[in-house]
Amino acid sequence: MNPEAVLDIGMQGLLVAAKLAAPLLITALVVGLAISLLQSITQVQEVTLSFVPKFVAVGIALLVAGNWMMSEIVTFTHEMFARIPMLLGGG
Q1: Separation of alpha carbons 63 and 86, rounded Å
Q2: pLDDT at res. 2
Q3: How far apart are CA 85 and CA 75, in angstroms?
Q4: What is the pLDDT tens value at each position of the chain, 91 positions in all?
Q5: What is the domain partition of the chain in residue ranges?
Q6: Dihedral, CA atoms, 62, 68, 69, 73, nearest 10 degrees?
Q7: Long-range contacts of range 58-65, CB-CB < 8 Å, 24 or more positions apart?
Q8: Are 55 and 32 in contact (CB under 8 A)?
Q9: C or N: which end of the chain has fewer Cβ atoms within 10 Å?
Q10: Rg (Cα) of the chain, in Å, rounded?
């Protein structure tokens, strides 16, 4: 196993992790920004007003994107298992 293969696997792993985290993080960012804007306009500083909508929105995003996320991680795992013989020098 050469260093280029290790770097390639690491880069692919980080890319898949970023792709899988993006829908949830973007959803939390957008909802958090909207709630913060609403709180600054109305001057209502309640912690649960910020937490509960984000929690619900991330849950909905997980329901919507969950199937895609599972297929991405399964595809990545299959690709990694398929690369094992090549990485071990078997061809």
Answers
A1: 36
A2: 83
A3: 17
A4: 788 888 999 999 999 999 999 999 999 999 999 999 998 898 887 777 888 999 999 999 999 999 999 999 999 999 999 998 888 886 5
A5: 3-87
A6: 160
A7: 58/24, 58/27, 58/28, 58/31, 60/27, 61/23, 61/24, 61/27, 62/24, 64/23, 65/23, 65/24
A8: no
A9: C
A10: 20
